[in-house]
Design a protein that fits this description.
Elements lengths: L3 E6 L8 H23 L10 E3 L7 H12 L3 E8 L5 H4 L7 E6 L7 H14 L4 E5 L13 H20 L3 E6 L12 H8 L2 E5 L2 H9 L4 H14 L14 H4 L9 H17 L2 H5 L3 H5 L3 E7 L12 H8 L2 E2 L2 E2 L5 E2 L4 H14 L4 E9 L1 H8 L11 E5 L12 E2 L5 E2 L8 H9 L2 E4 L10 E4 L7 E10 L3 E12 L3 H8 L8 E6 L10 H7 L4 E6 L3 H10 L4 E3 L20 H20 L3 H10 L12
Parallel strand pairs: 1-2, 1-3, 3-4, 4-5, 6-7, 6-8, 8-11, 19-22
Antiparallel strand pairs: 9-10, 12-13, 12-21, 13-20, 14-15, 16-17, 18-19, 18-21, 19-20
Helix pairs in contact: 1-5, 5-14, 5-19, 6-21, 8-10, 10-13, 20-21
Length: about 625
């Protein structure tokens, strides 16, 4: 059963005229909230999010219990209380430890809905239950059952984050391969995934892929279909190995013939998808355990170097898994991390759960200042790029959606929700991409890299989760724009690195202070060599989700008026930067004290309830 949002129509419990006069209005608010959320928020599979309304209005503890009993049968992961009036706060509030909470208090003059909202926010704060407050800026008439625009914006943002939390819970991050090449992000921190995200870590040795290839444990009809599609739609590009006389150690390491690479890679891709999600076809073939899959929501592949020193790399697989289409047409993107950088994989998961778009994995490779560009090319940067650019590049494993070849209604390049991709969009993304053979000096086993340049100027958001000893997980966010450089600039800059890899030129939006003082400062403050981009300016949505998961935000350039966190944040004042770490410590101590001997277990459960102030506030 999919996670749902439960709506709690909360009412003044006094019978004899008061309650009866409010029944219709209270239910009207619940229905309006349900309609708004179901129209604007989607599950990862593209279907509208489902909301359920309490079978009764809630005027006291007995009806709160009746609502809770109903919600327990509906897999409710988040609750939204709505009310036009005063209600009995501690008797009607949602006390569940398993829900992300919010309250919409009607801004009207006939009944004090705002008074209840303030009172219940105080009660939530006292009890260590983070809750989001929704209150319209302008007074409404009592017969106005619409959701005001400012409330709607908050409600949709809250619902996106809450349903993302619900979809993560009890799913798996599937690690294919082990830690290699000293890549710290490839270390899977099971404690972080369990305690902050509610995700199970699964591990698969790469011999399992070889076993399935050797024994034919894959859908052979699907393989033939996929291979035919790949040969028709994935042209080979520049081969940087051509004409080179490699040492014998490299020559003898390539055990899959170059003309058989695509066959191997196609089987590999199908098998990886089967491992993550399962495949009923395997059950028909007698492979019952393999048919089950790993209940995945995300994953990653780390084959360097024990795999890639003799077998084709996973660049094609990683690109296709993360893209919004394959040989069967449009599909749900899978957050699937290159080098199994699990923290980038989690960042990909956050991004696609919030947007329904394909997440793009990048190396955060180079900062190019305007002066450096002019020195190298003799040309000046203009437009979004005028203050400098960041070169986002990857070893060929970036989602093809990042080409920007899909078009919006006005004909502009864009990155779409996967369910809105058309055949024309898919064809354009494929035509904008070719596949270059991997450099045998780095990947002795070969493989193919997606090769393109982002060919549209689009709003995007870059993000990254990092783990910091003594703090825990933190997240970085940078909204900005992709840049299309003139060919004479692009060619000279791009060829200074690996010309077989996909390139995105990124200009973050600058604020003139802190990490966003200038483009150099964004690059200098980025916490790792990798980052994720997603289409659109969605930093505010990421901040809201991070607050639900207790993950501090260490840098962002989201306008202050867009930042939406649990109401308890205001208890710590508004000078957020200097006080943030102390707030984090105070909150952790307070909740542990309240939880008593079961403190640590309480914290973990509290996270699943959107425990945003139970451990950390955000840094900025």
């Amino acid at each position: 059963m999919k996670p749902k949002i439960g709506i709690r129509p909360t009412i003044d419990g006094r019978w004899g005229g008061v309650r009866e006069s409010l029944e219709e209005k209270t239910m009207a608010m619940a229905k309006a909230a349900k309609e708004l959320i179901e129209k604007n928020v989607h599950y990862q599979d593209g279907t509208p999010v489902e909301c359920v309304i309490s079978p009764c209005t809630i005027g006291g503890g007995a009806e709160a219990a009746k609502c809770a009993e109903y919600f327990s049968t509906q897999n409710v992961c988040a609750s939204l209380a709505v009310t036009p009036c005063w209600c009995y706060g501690s008797e009607t509030m949602d006390l569940s430890g398993d829900t992300v909470k919010a309250v919409w208090g009607f801004n009207g003059t006939e009944r004090p809905g705002a008074v209840y909202l303030a009172a219940v926010m105080a009660a939530f704060a006292q009890r260590g239950l983070p809750a989001f407050s929704m209150y319209g800026h302008d007074v409404q008439d009592i017969d106005d059952n619409s959701v005001p625009d400012d409330v709607a914006e908050k409600m949709i943002r809250w619902a996106k984050g809450a349903i993302a939390v619900g979809q993560m819970k009890d799913k798996a991050y599937v690690n294919l391969g082990g830690v290699a090449m000293g890549i710290a992000g490839s270390y899977c921190d099971m404690s972080f995934m369990q305690k902050y995200l509610g995700i199970r870590a699964e591990f698969v040795d790469l011999t399992e892929i070889l076993r399935r290839i050797t024994l034919g444990i894959y859908d052979h009809d699907e393989y033939e279909k996929a291979l035919k599609w790949i040969k028709a739609n994935c042209p080979e590009g520049f081969d940087k190995n051509a004409g080179k006389n490699f040492p014998e150690i490299i020559k003898k390491s390539k055990v899959v013939d170059a003309d058989k690479d695509w066959e191997f890679i196609t089987k590999f891709t199908i098998i990886v998808n089967d491992i993550l999600y399962g495949n009923p076809k395997l059950d028909e073939m007698g492979w019952h355990e393999e048919a089950l899959g790993k209940n995945a929501i995300a994953g990653g592949f780390q084959g360097q170097r024990n795999w890639t020193d003799w077998l084709p790399n996973a660049d094609f697989t990683e690109s296709l898994m993360a893209s919004s289409f394959n040989w069967n047409g449009k599909k749900m993107p899978t957050p699937f991390a290159t080098e199994n950088d699990t923290l980038n994989g989690i960042s990909m998961m956050f991004a696609t759960l919030l947007t329904g778009k394909a997440p793009a994995f990048h190396d955060v490779r180079t900062y190019w200042s305007p002066d450096a560009v002019k020195r190298v090319t003799g040309k000046e940067l203009t437009g979004y790029a005028k203050d400098g650019i960041m070169h986002l590049i990857n070893s060929g494993a970036t989602a093809m959606d990042c080409t920007g070849a899909a078009k919006d209604a006005d004909g502009n390049g864009t990155i779409k929700e996967w369910w809105n991709m058309t055949d024309k969009d898919i064809d354009a993304c494929l035509k904008a991409t070719d596949w270059c053979r991997a450099d045998y000096e780095y990947f002795r086993g070969g493989g193919f890299s997606s090769h393109f340049k982002t060919e549209a100027e689009m709003p995007i958001t870059m993000l990254r989760v990092n783990l910091i000893e003594g703090i825990g997980p933190v997240i970085q966010i940078a909204e900005g724009y992709t840049c299309v450089l003139p060919d004479e600039i692009h060619e000279k800059l791009d060829k200074r690195t690996d010309p077989t890899w996909p390139t995105t030129w990124f200009a973050p939006i600058l604020t003139g202070k802190g990490a966003f003082k200038d483009v150099y400062s964004v690059m200098a403050n980025w916490g790792a060599n990798h980052g994720v981009t997603i289409g659109g300016h969605v930093g505010a949505d990421i901040i809201t989700l991070a607050s639900m998961l207790r993950i501090p935000v260490t840098m962002h350039n989201v306008p202050e008026e867009k930042v939406y966190r649990p109401h308890a944040w205001s208890a710590f004042g508004h000078r957020r930067h200097g006080k943030a770490h102390r707030q984090h410590q105070l909150q952790a101590v307070a909740v542990r004290a309240a939880a008593g001997d079961a403190g640590q277990r309480h914290l973990h459960m509290h996270h699943l309830a959107g425990g945003s102030f139970s451990v950390n506030p955000c840094f900025s």
